[in-house]
């Protein structure tokens, strides 16, 4: 292996160098064979691979063990190619091995032993411990024969690497944790400290071999006697030592040390102590601070304990009315339901909501509102029995819990009494404050009584009471729950319908009262429901208002109406003006002007219809500002449903609308009622005097057309002339002119001729 020589056979098997001895004959041969046998067995047992390089004879020998450790067959012949073998040496070791062999061949004692890695036949690396020495020299002193052994030390190397890795890991752990370690030989009275422990004790520049009394001298004077006593007892008993104490470092700083140590006996039978110290000054300071804080907290808790009842009352009662609050109600719901189930009683829950309370708050201020809430709380207390429970659960809402016989009728009387008392005016700073109450009542009993569900049922009944006109009470019923569930389902469908663009515009044409020419069209919202078909606003508007999406629907209808009008114009059809509804919430939207400007509306082509129920006399600053912006954008204002009693002449003067629409209820009885004709005629006269056009809606008969034309109304809208229709039907309807034919048109023509004749006679 070491030099490129052909392999030599050895008649003695494993042994490269046989034992030699004196003597002749059969006895000598027998002794020699015995010695060689013992030598061979010893080598095989030792795991040594023998090699023999005889440069004088030009022979190389490699034992079976030498071959086996490299993955070769025991009887396999070695190639003997030095360069080929050198390629099996690990690249990182190759230069070193070449140098080591050269030095070993010349007898350099420093290279009699060296280690390197060689590739095993199956591909992995093995570590070889190579030991060689010169055994023969020539006359000039040059080595002529070198004999040696190779040992596979892979397992030892792996163990050493594992040990080194564990040692590195331990050192790193100690470094990170800043733990110092010492080892004391008790029998020899010596102590060795590591660098970290020296640093902890502030003994800068000290040697690792520390004087045995160095530790005792560093102990804080106040802790020294206690700690040394514990240490001595630990040494005497051989028990582990664990303690926390103060030291004075070499630089004079005071630190707190936590120490742990354990005894063991080494291989020589010496008693030793190994231990660890770490600096816990910061931890102890934090612990002491926490202890001080804990002591302070306990002292405060003792003070607060005296005020516990007061605090609990504040937590369970409303600060304004001193009634129990929602938290207390939840507790009582559980208690009362358990009581009712145990005693076979019924639990009645009254959910009370004050009516018109917001108006008092808004007009007279929150102090007035607070006074009304206190008054309401007093009324409720005085109206119930001592055993009943009254709570204010937020805002202007109250709840009463009563335990009653399951068949009792007294709860209705209690509700009537509360409503009657709360209706009475309350004097506050010179003002008579009037408000009322709506009450929802739910009663349940039996083993399955659920008080929280009963409270929900009372809430449903309250919702129904408010919907039926307020200042009343309603009992919960299964039908009311179904209505609530139905309304919830409808609300979900409305939101989905908005996502799917199911809300579409329908159009009802408007006509000149004198000529019956088309003057405009009103846009009406319809819901193209996927199951129920086309729905009018009366089917969804209330729920849409609760969802606050009416403004969204208005905006969608306006955009579609503008697109439809552009399509009609492109088709050669003239529709002078489109009117669309606008909700009160949208009219108060501060971004309304910006949204409308983005639509690029042609001035004079769009009218916004404001419901008279918006209460135009009391419109706030945001509404007034938006009305001003509408005029700047060329959008006309119409007052819809005029005559329902909200708008005053003053508001008409302030708003200066372009058009009034007379409510259909005033138009309906025109043919039968002279008083109705006078009233409608007065409205038309008011409009004319203020230069406001008047539209009559609800025109359903020829008599309506005739009478309104005689009253000098400007525009007509109703089923007698045209029903609402989708955008695609508008062009064919207008071109067909069907509204001009038949009896309606004839009567209109007769009226027109009569007016013309009267006009000539007057001249």
Assembly of the depicted chains: single chain
Q: Give the overall form.
A: elongated
Number of strands: 27
Write the CATH fold name of the largest domain.
TIM Barrel
CATH level-four homologous superfamily name of the largest domain: EAL domain
What value does the Rg take, in angstroms? 55 Å
* Number of helical elements: 27
Which regions have little confidence, pLDDT < 50, spanning 5+ residues?
Answer: 1-23
Number of domains: 4
- How many strands, what sense, and barrel or not for the largest sheet? 8 strands, mixed, barrel
Helix content: 40-55%
Structure notes:
There is one protein chain. The termini are far apart. It contains 27 helices and 27 strands. 28% of the residues are buried. The chain is of the alpha+beta class. The protein folds into four domains: 25-159, 2-Layer Sandwich (Beta-Lactamase), CATH 3.30.450.20; 178-284, PAS domain (Beta-Lactamase), CATH 3.30.450.20; 316-476, Reverse transcriptase/Diguanylate cyclase domain (Alpha-Beta Plaits); 490-762, TIM Barrel (Alpha-Beta Barrel), CATH 3.20.20.450. The model is unreliable at 1-23 (pLDDT under 50).
What distinguishing features does this structure have?
Alpha-Beta Plaits, Beta-Lactamase, 4 domains, 763 residues, single chain, disordered N terminus, six-stranded antiparallel sheet, elongated, 24% strand, eight-stranded mixed barrel, alpha+beta, 27 strands
Topology overview:
Blueprint: H1 25-46, E1 49-54, E2 59-62, H2 64-68, H3 82-86, H4 94-105, E3 113-119, E4 125-137, E5 143-152, H5 154-177, E6 179-185, E7 190-193, H6 195-200, E8 209-210, H7 214-218, H8 221-237, E9 241-248, E10 254-265, E11 271-279, H9 281-305, H10 308-316, H11 326-343, E12 346-355, H12 357-364, H13 366-383, E13 389-394, E14 397-404, H14 410-423, E15 426-428, E16 431-433, E17 436-445, H15 451-467, E18 473-475, H16 478-499, E19 503-512, E20 518-529, E21 533-535, H17 541-547, H18 550-570, E22 578-582, H19 584-587, H20 592-598, E23 606-611, H21 621-632, E24 636-642, H22 649-655, E25 659-662, H23 664-668, H24 674-689, E26 693-697, H25 702-710, E27 715-717, H26 730-736, H27 742-762
Parallel strand pairs: 17-18, 20-22, 22-23, 23-24, 24-25, 25-26, 26-27
Antiparallel strand pairs: 1-2, 1-5, 3-4, 4-5, 6-7, 6-11, 7-8, 9-10, 10-11, 12-14, 12-17, 13-14, 15-16, 19-20, 19-27, 20-21
